[in-house]
DNA sequence: TCCGCCAATGTATGCGCATACACTCGAAGT
DNA sequence: ACTTCGAGTGTATGCGCATACATTGGCGGA
């Protein structure tokens, strides 16, 4: 880790000016081949790596895009596990049947999409998870480092976003398509749920259905619920003819809600506003010996992996999570290219995926 | 997106010098409270966001840590899915039973750990996936942006790493603990496999065992195989008394290898060097009506989520993936604090997790 | 009363690069 | 032969901040 060589070192070594060195790196075509080779040789010999900080300062853009998503607020032990040379390996039993880590899949996939698209467009990707109280500081910190910022809906207060948006383009991921100054990227929550619900109501001919909604503060959930109501209307059903309950998007919440439902009666179908809730419902039904799909149909929403491994496998509406990430980056770069663009809303298509919990008729 | 305000703007507005503005932001204690408040007021009014590029240039450190992992080399469609306002939602059947996306879990978790630890230490995290031919350019590009770089083993040629390491600390994740100039962070592959194998050999009293190794170019696999051999020695078994086959770490590979094994005879236990292979083995055994664990014991390695959802659930050695990410960042920051440190190797503890495929005796 | 000292703030500089502009030189045009 | 022009290169400057050093003013001690 000796002092890092700079353009000056490379220039001196190859007998040219720093401008030429810079040109070799930025626009090679503007330099005669002979010169270019000499410079590149010096670069390799010296182990020169251009400083992105200096480049960013001079060029007034960093070529980095930021992705901000909600943190898990988990209590993190102060120290990471330390090196263990003793090498005694404990043997433990695993009796759990729920996996809490499936919930992260959503962000993981969005991130992967963002990374892919950023790379394709010559940007690097910086990620940050919002945690607790220091969120505000984190957001401005990241904002100072990037050319554009993608934020998952509801992880950052609008006020802060507006503050940041004075400086760089901000795109909101997966929230409702509001009429505001930001770009929005999200999936067709409403139409997706409507199509699935119609499949249950009309395809399976079910009337006796319960809908488990998510938390009221989730914009995605509001759209899905609206889609469900549309489906009711499509079938000429009055809204009060079905039950609509609220849960919290978690597997445990799904279980509790399923218990409440079954305490009253047994509907023919239970539609859930997300997959985790549906998995919880499946847990309770199996435990009570109620057959799915013979006795009760169950559906979810999202398309998380765990839904493919459940018994029975879960019918759901699959969101294109990777594409969401890509589209977010795409929106940012588009605005970078043309800042005068009006705020746009991108709605990505979804897919109803039929599996055993609500099979094809 | 008006021109972003700078320290000069803030200084002018609050009637102080830029040095004072900088101090308010960097070391608030050095400024009188009255002054500090005036400056902070100006900051908010102007919507000032410090430029990380300028800060990084002046301070000679960016406070960013890079994480480089292997890309999936998937063929990425040129354009992301476009906005679909028509909102026709297709309905498709999902008959697949294998999910290729579980493989990503490993990196996702490492990333999460890295993000957590980076944040705790005041660093931002930049991620990049190595893809195809431009890998070299990508690595140096990232290297120019960060204070330290964590790289998953075997994703970047040593030569390149050495080049980069002349400038910033580099830590290698999850590879063998080689004697080189880099820091290494990995899990106790050998002891983990040894413990598990001993449990099979001695706990279950099995002699008739087949071991399915992974690709020869995987350093993790080499350590696991060595651990298995140690276990053989522990039980006084000669190596030629068992069969050791090679597969490729994939579920399909596991299936093919299982078929080959069963063509010869039926061992009492099949130990696999990773979970995916083991899942493939389970597929074949179930298909042939061979009972697990009654007829054959099966074990894996890694602790991926899919192993918790299989039937029967898979006994495995669980790697602390989140901790790996944390430890990597930890190692980098340690070296940043004291560059004279000798190269270190951190070995994180693993856990044998018993599930039905090889239950507790 | 005078000096020294420290806290608070200002001034000046450099970090490493991109780039506008200036310059050179040879080829083509008149 | 002289001008024009453009390809190739060099010179000079600024990007926005941190920080070493200089400066100021107030306070306590002798």
Task: Detail the topology: elements first, then pairings.
The structure is a homodimer of 361-residue chains.
Chain A: H1 7-14, H2 18-26, H3 33-46, H4 52-59, E1 64-70, E2 91-93, H5 105-120, E3 124-130, H6 135-143, E4 148-152, H7 158-165, E5 170-173, E6 183-187, H8 189-203, E7 209-213, H9 219-234, E8 243-246, H10 251-264, E9 269-272, H11 275-287, E10 297-299, H12 306-309, E11 316-318, H13 321-337, E12 345-348, E13 351-354
Chain A binds a DNA duplex (30 and 30 nucleotides) through residues 6-8, 16-23, 25-26, 30-32, 35, 50-51, 53-60.
Task: Describe the 3D structure.
The structure is a homodimer of 361-residue chains. With 361 residues, chain A is an alpha/beta fold. The first copy, chain A, folds into three domains: 7-50, Orthogonal Bundle (434 Repressor (Amino-terminal Domain)); 64-72 and 103-187 and 321-348, Rossmann fold, CATH 3.40.50.2300; 189-319, Rossmann fold, CATH 3.40.50.2300. Helix content of chain A is 42%, strand content 16%. Chain A is built from 13 helices and 13 strands. Chain A has a six-stranded parallel beta sheet with strand order 3-1-4-5-6-12, sandwiched between helices. Chain A has a four-stranded parallel beta sheet with strand order 8-7-9-10, sandwiched between helices. In chain A, helix 9 (219-234) links the parallel strand 7 (209-213) and strand 8. In chain A, helix 8 (189-203) packs parallel to helix 9 (219-234) and helix 10 crosses helix 11. The radius of gyration of chain A is 26 Å and the shape is elongated. At the A-B interface, helix 4, strand 2, helix 5, strand 3 and helix 6 of A face helix 4, strand 2, helix 5, strand 3 and helix 6 of B. Chain A binds a DNA duplex (30 and 30 nucleotides) through helix 2 and helix 4. Chains A, B: It holds the Pfam family LacI. Chains A, B: InterPro entries: HTH_LacI, LacI/GalR-like_sensor, Lambda_DNA-bd_dom_sf, Peripla_BP_I. Chains A, B: Keywords: DNA-binding, Repressor, Transcription, Transcription regulation.
